[in-house]
Amino acid sequence: MEKGSTLISIEEAQNLVLTCSSLATILLEVPLTDALDFVLANDVISEIDIPPFRQSAMDGYALKISSEKTYTVIGEIKAGDHANPPLKNTETVRIFTGAPVPDTADAVIMQERVAVDGTRMSPQMPLVSEMNIRPRGSQIKRGATALEKGTVLKGAHIGFLASIGVTTVTVYKKPSIGIVVTGNELKAPGTPLEYGEIYESNGTMLSAVLRELGYLDTAITTVIDDYEETKNTLAAAIKKYDVVMVTGGISVGDYDFVGKALKAIGVAEIFYKVKQKPGKPLFFGKKDSTAVFGLPGNPAAALSCFYIYVYPLLKKTEGATQTQLLRIEMPMLEDYNVRGDRAQFLKAYVNGAHVQILGGQSSAMVRAFGDANALVFLPENTTIVKKGTPVKTILLPTK
């Protein structure tokens, strides 16, 4: 990585990340109870009808519709019972929600719409065939596709699969991620700061964001600004993890050893420096099957680069059909004067039908990210954006 490296466009950098990575997609068979947020690798086919029998949708009375004004209650059926009594025209059974409806019954009348005197029940409303009865297979029929390949499994999906008897699913493995934080000036929170020192936050921030997004196989390693230690730490991380993110030390200062160390251990550079703000000194490379990102040391720049470049690669690797964050056009809430001529990703907040660019846009300021739910993308050479002007708005993940 030389000082004169040519800046590439954002579009080219995004494309190179997704097309040049050697990350492999790996399939896992996992218990359904452990499958939250994983992506299905195969269609799931239902082996049963749901419901598997005609099912009462109400607490009430099951009966055969006839001209009778009153019916004799001959028993009851609750959820889990196996009873299937043959009903005559003058007979009914007390029934509860979820219970199997007798084959000879063609209606369930809710308990609030009947009059009961001992064992005599009189309907107080017109009866309609199949009322309050869930037909067998009305939710899904045996042999039908329950969930398609590519579905990101949420709690409701897992509940649905459990209802058809599924115990394990085949999913794409989530990549393991190593975070390497560099810098002599960085100290762990909770320790006293000397003059010239700051608390380390990038590793903690990225690790928290990854956990929030469902990536649990992560670890943070810190290293001082020493060439040999940097080289050894990076080599160990690249050997262990599918994706390595390095924060800081990627620039060209006298004590920025990351670039030299990556080259020394055989990481192939795909690109270095992107024509963007924040995050110009972004590095992407690979060694064997490991993808390596050199993120800027400034926290807001590091997080912006994560969302725009690292996140899509993680989603692709885990089998997601939608890899990029959702982009929509939204009108500006107010005028905004742009500083600089590079394309910019600005921390923003979507408020109803408008988007507002937040204060604190410096790449060193991460506080505004806590309030942001979006990034506004402004193309290069933009000078001013007027109130009401539609702008490309990148929605940040809500989980």
TrEMBL record:
Reaction catalyzed: adenylyl-molybdopterin + molybdate = Mo-molybdopterin + AMP + H(+)
Domain MoaB/Mog: 178-316
Domain of life: Bacteria
Protein name: Molybdopterin molybdenumtransferase
UniProt keyword terms in alphabetical order: Magnesium, Metal-binding, Molybdenum, Molybdenum cofactor biosynthesis, Transferase
Record EC number: 2.10.1.1
Membrane spanning residue stretches: none
PANTHER family: GEPHYRIN (PTHR10192:SF5), MOLYBDOPTERIN BIOSYNTHESIS PROTEIN (PTHR10192)
One GO location term (cellular component): cytosol
Any one GO biological process: Mo-molybdopterin cofactor biosynthetic process
Protein family according to the UniProt entry: Belongs to the MoeA family.
Pathway: Cofactor biosynthesis; molybdopterin biosynthesis
PROSITE patterns in the record: MOCF_BIOSYNTHESIS_2
GO molecular function (one): metal ion binding
Top-rank EC class of the record's enzyme: transferase
Needed co-factor(s): Mg(2+)
Functional summary from the UniProt entry: Catalyzes the insertion of molybdate into adenylated molybdopterin with the concomitant release of AMP.
